[in-house]
Amino acid sequence: MVPSVAEEIASAAARLVVDEGLEYAQAKRKALRQLGRPTRGSELPSNELVEDEVRSYLQLFRADSQLAELRALRELALRWMQRLAEFRPHLGGAVWRGTATRLSAIHIDLYCDDPKAAEIALINLGVDYDVAGGDGEVFYLSVAERCPALGELVTLHLAVRDLDEQRGALKPDARGRSWRGDIAALRRLLEVGD
């Protein structure tokens, strides 16, 4: 059976996600260019389809190393979530969804009454960070942290969100899986090794 255009793009994007550590949106755009497809008007695959392809690619080419890398990233994420517990942290992205490799960044959402409070907390912890604008009311604090288990620096992106946004934080995807989880949910994942 010949794959659809969306499946072809998803497959190419999955390789970029795993091999280059790209985020899904960036990987889809680069896959379009690599496949010689127009960037405007092309049907892009859903994130769920890309994630399915990432999982298949990992099983084929990274089965021997990916689970250990994922565990190391989740343990690092848990340490940061505990450090920033007052901001109701929720882990998202590939580290939460189980598709992360050593090239993946850790994405943590922080929910704050005062958006500057998270920045002040990092200053009080003596943490160097960069600030990046975001979409709408969200801005990002980026931190580089050494991950001893991986022997390299890992980027953490802390999305500072309004406290009211926490109500929709655990909204599921089209398949009923959550896009993010809190400290307790991450601990459960680490216990079962999922």
Q: What topology emerges from the helices and strands here?
A:
Layout: H1 5-20, H2 24-34, H3 47-61, H4 66-83, E1 90-92, H5 93-97, E2 106-112, H6 116-124, E3 130-133, E4 139-147, E5 152-162, E6 180-181, H7 183-192
Parallel strand pairs: 2-5
Antiparallel strand pairs: 1-2, 1-6, 3-4, 4-5
Helix pairs in contact: 1-2, 1-3, 4-7
Describe this structure in words.
This protein has helices spanning 5-20, 24-34, 47-61, 66-83, 93-97, 116-124, 183-192, and strands at residues 90-92, 106-112, 130-133, 139-147, 152-162, 180-181. It is α+β, with helices and mostly antiparallel strands. The chain folds into 2 domains: 5-61, no CATH class; 66-192, Beta Polymerase, domain 2 (2-Layer Sandwich), CATH 3.30.460. Strands 3-4-5-2-1-6 form a 6-stranded mixed β-sheet.
Q: Helix fraction?
A: 40-55%
Main CATH class of the largest domain: Alpha Beta
What would you give as the CATH superfamily of the largest domain? Beta Polymerase, domain 2
Number of strand elements: 6
Q: List low-confidence stretches.
A: none
Q: Figure out the total of helices.
A: 7
Fraction in beta strands: 15-25%
- Rg value: 17 Å
> What is the total domain count?
2
What's the CATH architecture name of the largest domain?
2-Layer Sandwich
In short:
This protein has seven helices and six strands. With 194 residues, it is α+β, with helices and mostly antiparallel strands.
Keywords:
six-stranded mixed beta sheet, 6 strands, 194 residues, Beta Polymerase, domain 2, single chain, 2 domains, alpha+beta
